[in-house]
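This section describes the prediction task in plain terms. A model, or a person checking by hand, is given the sequence of a single protein chain and must write out its three-dimensional structure as a string of tokens. No templates, partner chains or ligands are provided. The sample shown here is typical of the held-out split.
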Amino acid sequence: MRLVYVLFDSLNLNALSCYGDAPINTPNFDRFSKKAMTFQNHYVGSLPCMPARRDMHTGRLSFMHRSWGPLEPFDNSMPQLLSSAGTYSHLISDHFHYFEDGGTGYHTRYNTWDFIRGQEYDAWKAMVEPPIERFKAMYSDHQYNDESSTRLQHQINSEFVHDETDFPGPKCFESAFQFLETNRSADNWMLHLECFDPHEPFKAPERFKAALKSDYSGPILDWPKYGKVKESPEEIAEIRGNYASLVAMCDEYFGRMLDYFDKHNMWDDTCLILTTDHGFLLSEHDWWGKNLMPYYDEISHIPLIIHHPDMADKAGTSHDFLTQTADLMPTILDAFGVDIPREVTARSIFDMLEGGKQHTSVIYGMFGGPIGVSDGEYSYFIYPPDLKDESLGEYTLMPAHLDGPFTGEELATGQLSGPFDFTKGQQVLRVDALNSARRPGGYDAASAERFETSLFHNASDPMQLKPIKNQEISDRLKNEIMTTLELHDTPSDYYNWMGFTQINN
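The expected answer:
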């Protein structure tokens, strides 16, 4: 078996025309959907970026135990399990968070990896005296108004990106084709091609931007700040157009992968998976970004399209049963015939396709945020009584946040806890989840007050604009949440923080 796993970051389901009406044509994503199986009810798990990748490695949810952080010493890792079973794994990525403190241990589980530099605020190019005044004239002060912020690093990096071949996304695909040229005829390998695009900042090669040009003529608007929409209609159109130009680029380069499969007849012996980690609000619900708001469908409901050479008879089919990010781990292990560890709570999609047990619901969330649950028909978002309550605990043996270690103030609250049923007999450090901690996507009081627990009927209200009241459905979905929390050996303080009564005390 050979497998190519293509992961784009922040690829909205409603940006792909194979999933319905889309702002642009995506002919190559559509082309792939005709040769593969399209999953209509695929959802996120733990949010955002690195928590999602921990789910992909381990096959279980982690947001109720830990915020953004490294892979833990006791964690199962899908590529490492493949390698131990004799399957070679290679990672190609421009996702620079793998190389920060909070991303430790993920890329090193692959046999080899290739890191493409230059995305977002990757500490790539050095400029001791950047041209601040020129930058102020080039970039909108709505988005670039703090010279000490990480956005300055993006401005510096962009000074060294001129031609299309300089962009990190195209470089990732170039590296992928080099891998395939060298290893295509070998057996038992997985190529994980992970592109940061179309994640913000929305900077695409000029030919893609020109094709989707808006009427806006002001300074660069490519990196919306997470929060309420304050921009004019022209500015909104420019930001959305810049995102669409990145999607168009991703579609074209993915099409080159399909061309390679065609040319070398790889459809007969190679599995191909296309998905993302989460979506992004592009002014829907009057918000930009993710994390601060309920996990509306634009964030939580994501694309998944899979070709398996042994399921060629299912080419072009569409499937409505529930799947989510963590399911990719046992699915890939299943493709190679590798045993699935007992700690895995997710399910192989291939097994579900062949009549295996399916999910009755999926839950998803971010550490320190609300919980979302979907059963395919309804979506329910539950907020805790107080998002600022510091009684929640982080459980870890790798005390690092996105860009640095836990502070002394945090570690002073530490005490040994556990073990949990997934830590393989190891106790872990419990640390108070202080509001001062450097967790990404944190909640401020003003933002939190805007939201409340809400229930939506997906079919009649696909944009999730009209919350409904139905106690019977709410109670049923809450019970689904409680069952999943119990399955993941969730700590007592999480139940208390959410205002839940624990099933088994």
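For orientation: The CA atoms of residues 153 and 427 lie 39 Å apart.
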